[in-house]
Amino acid sequence: xxxxxxxxxxxxxxxxxxxxxxxxxxxxxxxxxxxxxxxxxxxxxxxxxxxxxxxxxxxxxxxxxxxxxxxxxxxxxxxxxxxxxxxxxxxxxxxxxxxxxxxxxxxxxxxxxxxxxxxxxxxxxxxxxxxxx
Length: 133
Hints:
Layout: E1 2-4, E2 23-26, E3 34-39, H1 46-54, E4 61-66, E5 70-73, E6 79-82, H2 98-116, E7 126-130
Parallel strand pairs: 3-4, 3-7
Antiparallel strand pairs: 1-2, 2-4, 5-6
């Protein structure tokens, strides 16, 4: 497992720079031919997920678990915690953090683009997963 705080190439064991300035990467044990990009939930980090997912992975699978930036979350009284975007309310009709959602989506696309640019990788060999609570 590798934890990085700087921008790196997306090669085996590498990372791309995120808002959080940290990403956890479990390099493929064998020839890298597939990637799992897994996003943690509110208040969590990628560290624990990377560790747990490493126990069940295929040798050709690289696991990328980025850490969301720490920011105030309105729903939780402004408490600062890892969050991909602000959450104002659980009401489906409430205002959404469009700017935060767009920023998170851009970062996810950057990671996916970096993975697709690796030799031998194809978009159909990338899985995007997330924690559901």
